[in-house]
Design a protein that fits this description.
heterodimer, B: Arc Repressor Mutant, subunit A, three-stranded antiparallel beta sheet, 6 strands, 25% strand
Chain lengths: 346, 103
């Protein structure tokens, strides 16, 4: 038996998610035009509750937690939380707008043991970024935050939500992110949730524009050295070279990942407002295995234009959150999907 | 040579999957290729089958290759020479991938 034979085949349902995206708070010092969480309200767990929740996740086998929200740095106990969860074996990262990330905070982040910090950057142009984020000076603060993290030796990633303000400016954005010393650039597809839903006609791309964008992103990802460009969208299955061989078919939500709200409620992802249960009140393993919502997401069936589509086995209808937000049906075709939109079906 | 896991590589054994694979193999069903252990490296997910998982877990920075083979020999009905060859191939591939370090 060769070593190659020891690579196992992917199982359909893992024993637990690999990562939990954790909105510690929905409070934010920004008011971005695309944000899913500005209309969200939730009580927040106290420090002890968060550490207990982390203990339960670690016991279940979760490997990573990524703090988002809301702005995680508004939680004054963030260092204590990350240190406590790290001590339980969880690898912690976070996404921040960078506004509060001064030199002292960067040092605290390093001391707390964060594996990496993601900063939001929506354009290489300061005025575009600041307008999108509704906060003058935010572009400069992100650059300063990146420098502060670099001085502390904390790994930096950059997150960009793709929208009409930046979809044709990917090359200069990549150049900027490389110059900031980031190890990875995440290109997040636009979600029609919260303010993203309200502003979708102004910000979202057409299916054909998504196709063009992903073609350019795929080309850049193969060309750029020294920066990993990461984008994961199930609808990439219909583009040549679009899906990684290790990717699970369809959305990863509910299969590889879950989302925690500030009060401990679990949802499949931050963009699907269907509560599975509560991390402190319910048996996590039972929720993961038996939740009707998760079972529905793991057993999707083709509807509409997905019926008979040759890509369905790989994309499983695309992003479930987008489909649900636009139609209320988890099985509906992803509204971003370009297949059959003014072109020949596969 | 002593092998140990790279410090920042995340992994976990899928216990239920392991039980199912062991049960299937005991019943003579084909399951040797089923994944029983997950590795996550730089955001990418990899799985090891039962034998790969068992070797991986023994790479604790203390055991020699011979000791790893000795331990595995108790659980696998295969000749020592073949087993040792498989183990060495596996360790070499894991080292090339950067998932195992040597001392």
């Amino acid at each position: 038996m060769a070593a190659d034979g020891m690579k196992g085949k992917r199982r359909k349902v893992l024993s637990a998610p690999l990562i939990v995206n954790w909105s510690l708070s929905y409070d934010c010092n920004f008011n971005c035009r695309h944000c899913y969480s500005r209309s969200e309200e939730s009580d927040e767990l106290d420090t002890a509750g968060i550490l207990e929740a982390g203990e339960r996740l670690a016991r279940a086998g979760v490997l990573f937690v990524n703090f988002g929200g809301g702005e995680p740095l508004l939680r004054r106990d963030l260092g204590e939380i990350a240190g406590g969860l790290g001590g339980r074996g969880l690898s912690c990262s976070m996404n921040s707008n960078g506004w509060l990330l001064d030199t002292a905070t960067a040092a605290q982040i390093r001391e707390a043991g964060f594996a990496s910090v993601g900063l939001s950057m929506d354009s290489h142009l300061p005025e575009v970024h600041d307008r999108f984020r509704n906060r003058a000076g935010s572009f400069d603060r992100v650059r300063k935050a990146a420098r502060n993290l670099a001085e502390e030796g904390v790994a930096l990633t950059v997150s960009t939500v793709i929208s009409r303000v930046n979809h044709q400016e990917l090359d200069p954005l990549v150049d900027l992110v490389r110059s900031m010393g980031a190890v990875k650039l995440y290109l997040h597809n636009f979600k029609c949730s919260g303010r993203g839903f309200d502003n979708r006609s102004e910000l979202d791309l057409s299916p054909g524009e998504w196709k063009d964008f992903y073609r350019r992103a795929l080309a850049l990802a193969g060309e750029v050295a020294g920066l990993e460009i990461s984008f994961d969208d199930p609808i990439l299955a219909s583009l040549e070279g679009g899906r990684r061989d290790d990717a699970s078919p369809g959305s990863s939500c509910g299969k590889l990942s879950l989302h925690l709200r500030p009060n401990g409620d679990l949802t499949p992802c931050g963009f699907i407002p269907l509560v599975l249960g509560n991390i402190l009140r319910d048996d996590f393993a039972v929720l993961w295995r038996e939740s009707p919502v998760l079972q529905a997401m793991r057993g999707k069936s083709a509807t509409g234009k997905c019926r008979g589509c040759g890509h369905y086995a790989e994309c499983l209808g695309g992003c479930t959150a987008r489909a649900y937000a636009m139609t209320g049906d988890l099985n509906a075709p992803d509204p971003h999907c370009w297949v059959g939109e003014g072109e020949s079906p596969p | 040579m002593i092998f140990r896991h790279r410090p920042n590589i995340a992994w976990r054994e899928e216990k239920e999957a392991r039980q199912e694979v062991v049960a299937a193999l005991e019943e003579g069903r084909e399951a040797a290729d089923e994944g029983t252990l997950i590795l996550v490296d730089a955001g990418r997910i990899f799985e090891l089958n039962l034998l790969g998982a068992d070797i991986w877990k023994l790479c604790d920075g203390r055991r020699s290759v011979e000791e790893i083979v000795d331990e595995l020999q108790q659980g696998y009905d295969v000749g020592r020479r073949e087993l040792e060859s498989d183990v060495r191939d596996f360790l070499e591939e894991m080292k090339e991938r950067g998932w195992l370090l040597t001392e």
